Amino acid sequence: MSSVYERELKGILSGDEDAIRRSTKTCSPEEAASYLKARHRPFLVVRGAGSLGVDLVALRGDVSFPIEVKSASADVIHFADGSKRNQDQADAMQKECSRASVIPLYAFRRKGVRGDSWRVHTLPTDNLPPRIAVLYDRIPKVERTEKGNYVLRWQNGLPLSKFVEYLCG
Known about the structure:
The protein is an alpha+beta fold. Helix content is about 35%, strand content about 25%. A hairpin with a 5-residue loop joins strand 7 (about 145) and strand 8. About 35% of the residues are buried. The model has no long low-confidence stretch (mean pLDDT about 90).
């Protein structure tokens, strides 16, 4: 099922007008207008592969992101539920992104939500160039529990429409 949401996000960031219109049917006019700005400053988005847990990689001349796509009906995703796989992937992604000076993104698609159903989060990252650090500071960080496990809280994320507005507006 997550591949459906990967394709949806890929279409939005690629500036595909049909994908954007399908994704914004229940969005406010302002949210839909923000999404449509991706048509003018699109990303080249490719499916990721490998053990870092990267589903998509968004590339553009000024900025690039590895993106892990998560979806749930609930408003919280606990990385330590079930197995440690998600937690280990996040730790590896954080380490590699800090090493490469890029911002890792988690795109959380909440199922059954009207309006902008996407939220963006990032992991704590070091060694970012000043220009990229300004963007990084605007993106909410993935939270940690008292035991140190990552948690995505949908309501605490940056709406994707605002993220696209900032990057493409």
